[in-house]
Design goal:
The chain has helices at residues 9-23, 27-31, 71-84, 151-155, 222-233, 238-255, and strands at 47-49, 54-57, 60-63, 86-87, 108-109, 134-141, 144-147, 159-166, 176-183, 203-204, 212-213. By secondary structure, the protein is of the alpha+beta class. It has a 4-stranded antiparallel sheet with strand order 7-6-8-9, with helices on both faces.
């Protein structure tokens, strides 16, 4: 991220949330195993323009409104990168030192689609059609629930959740819940971290004491928390809608 170090707390926190979601179901880890002694190490470089929230990886370009939390778009970009990733086809056997086919046309998709045919000559494990997980940002304001909240909505949020979901082995049951992490909203940050003058951000501007910080009291209702998660994983919910849109993009890539 421009202007921030690789070990900056924000960068590390975002990377860790994405990493937790990708390894939660174990599917990606198994796909990177070559044999008992060797495995692939995967690097994903995502470039962002903070002023406009433009994310690009390889030839993928995604846009979002400025001043939004970057986690959802970062997750979608990573998802698309994994869908387009391919691994060289191995020609070695079992625990031999790995050798690979030099022909890139014989390479194997990291996440083969249900319609794609894997190379029949490739000596590799076969996996059922699957998709990388995605992480959704969900906030609550009183009893109201918002997805991919704007800056103003985040400023008054009672709770912010990063919910990671993945495709279920039984589609009729919706999606699998892989991970849930809470994110501190601006309304609960300290006075030095909160933005002075932001309505609902815990700053006493109406009482005449400019810059006097008042901590938000209370928590979130369990029922609201349950609804936030349910809307992500339920059949026909937000998670399925997002994965469906990403699946359409993957189909276009295969046809192209």
């Amino acid at each position: 991220m421009p202007g921030q170090r690789d070990d900056d707390a924000m960068v590390v926190f975002l990377a860790q949330m994405i990493h937790e979601g990708l390894v939660a179901d174990g599917g990606l880890r198994n796909r990177l195993v070559i044999n008992s002694r060797w495995h692939w190490r995967l690097y994903i470089d995502v470039h962002t323009d903070n002023s406009r929230h433009i994310f690009a990886v390889q030839q993928i370009l995604l846009l979002s409104p400025p001043h939004t939390y970057p986690l959802p778009l970062l997750s979608l970009t990573t998802h698309l990168a994994l869908l387009s990733a391919r691994l060289p086809a191995p020609i070695s056997k079992q625990d031999e030192d790995p050798l690979f086919n030099d022909d890139w046309d014989a390479s194997i998709p990291l996440y083969p689609s249900s319609t794609s045919n894997a190379n029949p000559k490739a000596k590799t494990k076969s996996f059922p059609a699957a998709r990388p997980p995605i992480t959704l940002l969900v906030i609550s304001v009183a009893d109201n629930i918002f997805f991919d909240a704007s800056r103003e909505e985040l400023a008054v949020a009672d709770a912010v959740l990063a919910v990671t979901v993945g495709a279920s082995s039984s589609p009729s049951t919706g999606l699998d819940l892989l991970a849930v992490r809470t994110v501190d909203p601006p309304s609960r940050l300290s006075a030095s971290a909160a933005e002075v003058g932001q309505a609902g951000a815990g700053i006493d501007v109406e009482g005449g004491n400019e810059g006097v910080w008042k901590p938000r009291k209370g928590g979130m209702k369990r029922g609201v928390l349950g609804r936030m998660v349910q809307m992500c994983v339920e059949r026909g919910g937000v998670g399925e809608e997002v994965l469906g849109g990403l699946g359409d993009w993957g189909s276009l890539v295969e046809q192209g």
